[in-house]
Amino acid sequence: MAKTNNFCFCSLLPFLCFVGFLFIPAKAAVKSYQFDIQVKNVSRLCHSKPIVTVNGLFPGPTIYAREGDTVLVNVTNHAHYNMSIHWHGLKQYRNGWADGPAYITQCPIKTGNGYTYNMTITGQRGTLWWHAHIFWLRATVYGAIVIMPKQGTPFPFPQPYREANIVLGEWWNNDVEEVVKQGNRLGLPPNMSDAHTINGKPGPLFPCSEKHTFAMEVEQGKTYLLRIINAALNDELFFAIAGHNLTVVEIDAVYTKPFTSQAILIAPGQTTNVLVQANQVPSRYFMAARPFMDAPLSIDNKTATAILQYKGISNSVLPVLSQLPALNDTAFVLSYNAKLRSLNTAKYPANVPLKVDRQLFYTIGLGINQCTTCLNGTQLTASLNNITFVMPQIGLLQAHYFNTKGVFTTDFPDRPPTAFNYTGAPLTANLGTKLGTRLSKIAFNSTVELVLQDTNLLTVESHPFHLHGYNFFIVGTGVGNFDPKKDPAKFNLVDPPERNTVGVPTGGWAAIRFRADNPGVWFMHCHLELHTSWGLKTAFVVENGKGSDQSVLPPPADLPPC
């Protein structure tokens, strides 16, 4: 049987793993992967510890496919934790059973059991990623998804000579789940990470890390495509390469109008493709990643590095240092995000909903609730419209599909219970929230506008929000309180950026629009793992349409039992 190219540049990415695939009619292919969840000892920063991995790899294997392909990933769980895997950014049309978030679209895969995620890639091409979607296990269980255009379809930008994945992450010296449990016992945030990583490696600025440094060889005069993914749990990150400009050509697997920048900002959950020209004096240059934080919060502000090395240059040459924006450079961030625009051509249109059927306004807040098991009697929490989401004991999609009563309600409010000066002086009284598994019901094919408003409940902070099952258009953002009378007049309804994860500015707001044409139960949550675990999440129940191909597909036979 004929094989297709796997686009695996093993000289650059030795950790890639490809299983195999075969042709079926219409030039679509079936790509099959085996993911064995297993524990492996890994050393970083002079510390060795057992971590949960896929196939013993950290980061995990890259999924390669083409637009139109079917991807089968058989996940077998050999670890002592329950497991589920989310294919971040894949739309999973009518097929939420393959989406992956534990207790939202499936119950987790128990130790010794397996589940095959069956996914068809429709109308998508570019860089996405996959990660564990239970507990904090995505600290080590993650990898890239590379979707090539259909055979014979070129990129809408200059063809690169080579490409490489740059997956940004975080590393804890101690067991992450134990760190989280300790924080929960105190009712406080867990200890911050000990390092950031690039392709699982912190780089030579950290102790014991000379051999734990990712290096990429380039040839003078060639152009390279970097597929950059922020797999960090809690940090927005700047990324730059010393002496080299980055030309942004894609975000969250959607082509953009190209623009050049000395650095990029990438929030947890987001992906960014950039072109890099190897046009500098042949030498060694640091690639670097460091957090952005413009709120009064403590974070792991250490810099991860990798090396861009010109062919023929000795390893003894000291790399040139990168210049990254300052830790709190809000001006750079606002300017950078304002440059992001959808390509919006005849072939790749930006189909922005111009008429809105349903308007939603969600406030993002931190809070403090009573906690009988916490040492100080209280715990930090988070909420949308003052509701802290309570995870169910069975999958919400199962409950919806089989009409199981008592699992969730569909009375999540369209607006907060009380209007106030959301971004005024810090609010430190009456910080309790309501608890509930409350969802919002959305009519099939209706158009939705959602304004996400940060608040100064305890503190303002930037929040990257991810919506499963959909892309959306970011039609507007701003600092301060959203003004429903004045701000919509400034919305970009022509070529706004299209993403699956939006960064809500610190002390500001973001407005998104999407058409609810994918029936099922779709999770929406802050992609800062800390805030997700505190309850900063909800889900949409998108109703079935009337057509035969507009309803949720039946569940697969091997769906994990609850």
Spatially, the strands of the biggest sheet line up as: 11-10-13-18-15-16
CATH architecture annotation of the largest domain: Sandwich
Shape type: globular
Count of all domains: 3
User: In percent terms, what proportion of residues is strand?
Assistant: 35-45%
Largest sheet: 6 strands, mixed
Helix content: under 10%
Give the CATH H-level superfamily of the largest domain. Answer: Cupredoxins -  blue copper proteins
Mean pLDDT metric: 94
At the first level of CATH, the class of the largest domain is Mainly Beta
Keywords: Apoplast, Copper, Glycoprotein, Lignin degradation, Metal-binding, Oxidoreductase, Repeat, Secreted, Signal
GO biological process, one term: lignin catabolic process
Function: Lignin degradation and detoxification of lignin-derived products.
Main location: secreted
Report on the structure:
The structure is a single chain. The chain is mainly beta and about 550 residues long. The chain folds into 3 domains: about 30-155, Cupredoxins -  blue copper proteins (Immunoglobulin-like, Sandwich); about 155-340, Immunoglobulin-like (Sandwich); about 360-550, Sandwich (Immunoglobulin-like), CATH 2.60.40. The protein is about 5% helix and about 40% strand. It has helices at about 175-185, 330-340, 395-400, 530-535; strands spanning about 20-25, 30-45, 45-55, 65, 70-75, 85-90, 115-120, 125-130, 140-150, 160-170, 195-200, 215-220, 225-230, 235-240, 245-250, 255-260, 265, 270-275, 285-290, 305-310, 360-370, 380-385, 385-390, 435, 440, 445-455, 465, 470-480, 500, 500-505, 510-515, 520-525, 535-540. The strands form 7 sheets. A 6-stranded mixed beta sheet has the order 11-10-13-18-15-16, with no helix packed on it. Strands 22-21-26-31-28-29 form a 6-stranded mixed beta sheet, with no helix packed on it. A hairpin with a 2-residue loop joins strand 15 (about 245-250) and strand 16. It is an enzyme of class 1 (oxidoreductase).
